[in-house]
Write a structure and sequence with these properties.
heterodimer, A: about 600 residues, alpha+beta, Beta-galactosidase, Chain A, domain 5, 15-stranded antiparallel beta sheet, 13 helices, 28 strands, about 35% helix, B: about 160 residues, mainly alpha
């Protein structure tokens, strides 16, 4: 008889939970394995990358040996995830978190630079637990030497950086054939074991005593997140999902600078077969306006203000031409490269780090930045003179370059075209600068104002004449084109055209007919080789309906259909395929921003109608 | 002793020593963060400790230059190579005597034989401060030799 090696079962993204501490994130796979972790920040090299290579990437797994029932969930309104395992013999709960102190606590106590805490509690009967710890710092380029000592537990080093794992009970670690170290633990009802993984790269390690600190840290971290979530100013439908989205956005926010990364992962494929695997661990300016609206709209003005501050700081470095993306400190990420030693998510190569889209020209970003900053200034009319100078310069750049072709919002690597969406955002840039001037927030010379008004009118005409295709009855993807693109739904989002206008209704109908995939899902366009619907576009359709393009019932019904595609823990990727599987980097900030904005539009419509 | 000369070059030497050590941290060569280690003697919070430690470290380096000046007097005058020699001895003393005995003196440093406690949570440096990265002794020696050279060459 010939032994046949069965292929490894496909991993599903939707079961994953994300945890973080405002500087880095980890993904927990829904069955007790941390399979993604980058320290010290989002775009650092991965310590655990089993997400991208199960054999070689490295992971930290805690799993009962025979548990048949596995159920992950978030502790309500927190970024603390609990995975319950059980069978007839017993049950355990694994609590995963990156501890965050309540504001100001860092003044009183020493705390590790970075920490991942896993607390295992046996709630019933007895269980045997298998633990495997296989760190692979530096994207698993080489296998590290794992050492042990009394103080630092099991530790590995890379340069001066150190990863130390300690366990609250004596553990008999042994080498695991697959790599790393492993141990077996036996637990009885009432037992609790804490696993504390800490990291330091430029200071001595801070090692907490583990006796009863685990429970205290879980409690403090839950309190922090609950307090933060409670501030969400939203009373519409699906509040739990809106709060979950806000919590995801907070996790994607790099606290030291206020930047918000698009997603905490790289190279999760947008297509099942192909090479559409990109690194999203950076900050895209295209998300700016949506981010500002979501944060200010939910009442998170500190986060919104910090984001706008980062936005102005980052764009000042490259003004007036803006890059498509920046790192969390506003610098350019390094050159895109391929990690050929990693096999990719479910075998989808290549694994890329950094993002080549940085070299593209996307003329929409000026409008997105200006719109975000304008939203902040509408709230707090106290801009710095250097900031108003910057907006004028960005306006000048748009007025000079608005007729250029560009790569556009979807970043195809196939060349430049005259995108209607880019024209729309150029119009937004000038409209908002002129609006701020009308409010007296910034001053414009007579000559500059006349120029801005003239260009704005010219763009307006161009979109209405060359961006509209009467044959298909819709605004199109490119000027004089006949292809549809879901970005046309944003014409009403940015208040270029009223959502209830006949043209917008007709455009939406055409988009739904041609790009719709059913169950609320919508493709971006037909030119992109997506294997599923783009989540943000689906929520843009809801916004179009809620803003007057349809009835409240239609908007709510569609919103309900889309949120059915969320993962088990309420998280969204970039795309959803027709089978309901998540595709693309995970969780995706753009999708959650769109969810929040759509929900707020529904809430607004409900208030209007009541 | 020329007080002004000591004050000026003692300060400059301390700044250079701090730059070398901080650069070593930034380049990922060592986790030995002297301001943080000093500061945690006085405060438990990460940020206040780093702030206090930075000022104490600057004053400390400044005052320590007096020891160098005294050594130059005893040795028959200051030269750059005498400064370098004293700096080397200073660095070796720090690495072989001060660092291994630090857990006994530092109120928040964990004792290797007891493990961390509520109060003592800081990782000890170990012999030659090797716990903080293998290149740590090199950066400590380079920093202190430069400190000595500046004092030996410029203090009058």
């Amino acid at each position: 008889m010939v032994a046949v090696a069965l292929p490894a079962p496909r991993m599903r993204l939707g079961r994953h939970a994300v945890i973080g501490d405002g500087r880095s994130c980890a993904l927990v796979d829904g069955a007790g394995t941390v399979d993604w972790l980058c320290w010290p920040r989002f775009d650092s090299d991965a310590t655990f990358a089993a997400l991208l290579d199960r054999e070689r990437g490295g992971c930290f797994s805690i799993r009962p040996r025979h548990a048949r029932r596995i159920a992950p969930r978030y502790v309500k309104d927190t970024n603390v995830v609990v995975t319950a395992f059980g069978d007839d013999a017993g049950a355990v709960e694994l609590t995963d978190l990156m501890p965050v102190d309540e504001d100001g606590a860092h003044v009183e106590r020493l705390a590790p630079e970075h920490e991942l805490l896993r607390v295992l509690t046996c709630t019933r009967g007895e269980m045997t637990i298998d633990v495997r710890y296989d760190p692979r710092p530096g994207f698993a380029v080489r296998r590290p030497r794992i050492r042990r000592d009394r103080l630092r537990g099991v530790f590995v080093t890379a340069g001066a950086a150190v990863w130390s794992l300690r366990v609250s009970v004596p553990v008999d670690w042994h080498e695991d054939a697959r790599g790393g170290v492993a141990c077996t633990l036996h637990m009885r009802a009432g037992d609790q074991i804490a696993f504390d993984l800490v990291y330091a790269h430029d200071v001595p390690l801070v090692l907490r005593p583990l006796d009863d600190h685990g429970a205290a840290l879980v409690s403090a971290t839950c309190n922090y997140w609950r307090g933060w979530a409670k501030r969400a100013r939203y009373e519409g439908p699906h509040r739990d999902l809106v709060v979950r989205s806000a919590l995801v956005l907070k996790l994607l926010c790099y606290a030291p600078s206020g930047a918000i990364v698009a997603a905490p992962t790289t190279s999760l494929p947008e297509k099942r077969h192909g090479d559409h695997n990109w690194d999203y661990r950076f900050c895209w300016l295209r998300d700016a306006a949506f981010t500002a609206r979501a944060l200010f709209g939910l009442g998170y003005c500190d986060e919104g203000g910090a984001f706008c501050h980062w936005l102005l700081h980052a764009t000042r470095r490259t003004k007036p031409r803006l890059k498509v993306l920046y790192d969390v400190f506003g610098k350019s990420p390094g050159r895109e490269r391929i990690l050929s030693h990693l096999s990719g998510w479910n075998g989808a190569r290549p694994v890329r780090v950094a993002n080549g889209a940085i070299d593209q020209l996307q003329l929409d970003v000026h409008g997105e930045v200006i719109d975000a900053v304008a939203q902040q200034w509408y709230q707090h009319l106290d801009p710095d003179p250097s900031e108003t100078d910057l907006l004028r310069e960005l306006g000048d750049y748009v007025a000079k370059n608005w007729q250029e072709p560009d790569e556009g919002i979807w970043e195809p690597r196939t060349g430049r075209e005259h995108h209607v969406h880019s024209r729309l955002l150029e119009w937004v840039a000038l409209d908002r600068v002129l609006g701020l001037a009308d409010l007296g927030v910034l001053s414009l010379s007579v000559k500059r104002r006349a120029r801005f008004e003239q260009v704005k009118s010219a763009i307006d005409r161009q979109i209405r004449i060359r961006g509209w295709n009467s044959r298909i009855g819709a605004y199109t993807s490119t000027l004089d084109g006949d292809e549809l693109d879901a970005t046309a739904l944003l014409l009403s989002w940015y208040e270029f055209e009223d959502a209830s206008s006949e043209r917008m209704r007709s455009t939406a109908r055409a988009i739904d007919r041609v790009l719709g995939l059913g169950k609320g899902l919508i493709r971006r366009n037909l030119a992109l080789p997506d294997d599923g619907g783009f989540v943000a576009c689906a929520f843009w359709f809801v916004e179009h309906l809620a803003r007057g393009g349809g009835t409240l019932e239609e908007a709510t019904e569609r919103f309900d259909a889309i949120v059915e595609h969320a993962g088990e823990l309420g998280l969204f990727s970039e795309l959803v395929d027709p089978h309901g599987d998540a595709l693309g980097n995970f969780p995706q900030g753009f999708s959650h921003l769109a969810l929040v904005n759509a929900a707020m539009s529904i809430e607004h419509r409900m208030k209007e109608e009541s | 002793m020329n007080i002004g000369s000591w004050a000026l070059w003692g300060f400059v030497a301390t700044v250079v020593l701090t730059i070398v050590l901080a650069s070593s941290q930034g380049l990922g060569l060592t986790r030995m963060n002297i301001p943080f280690m000093i500061g945690t003697m006085f405060r438990s919070g990460n940020r206040p400790a780093a702030r206090i430690g930075f000022f104490v470290h600057l004053v400390d380096g400044w005052l320590f230059a007096l020891v160098y000046v005294a050594a130059f007097h005893a040795w028959g005058g200051a030269t750059w190579w005498r400064g370098a020699a004293i700096g080397l001895v200073h660095a070796l003393f720090v690495l072989t005597v001060l660092m291994p005995s630090l857990p006994a003196m530092h109120p928040r440093m964990a004792m290797p034989e007891q493990g961390p406690s509520d109060l003592r949570m800081l990782e000890p440096p170990g012999f030659f401060a090797l716990h903080y990265g293998y290149p740590t002794p090199v950066s400590v020696i380079v920093a202190h030799v430069l400190y000595g050279i500046i004092l030996g060459a410029f203090v009058t």
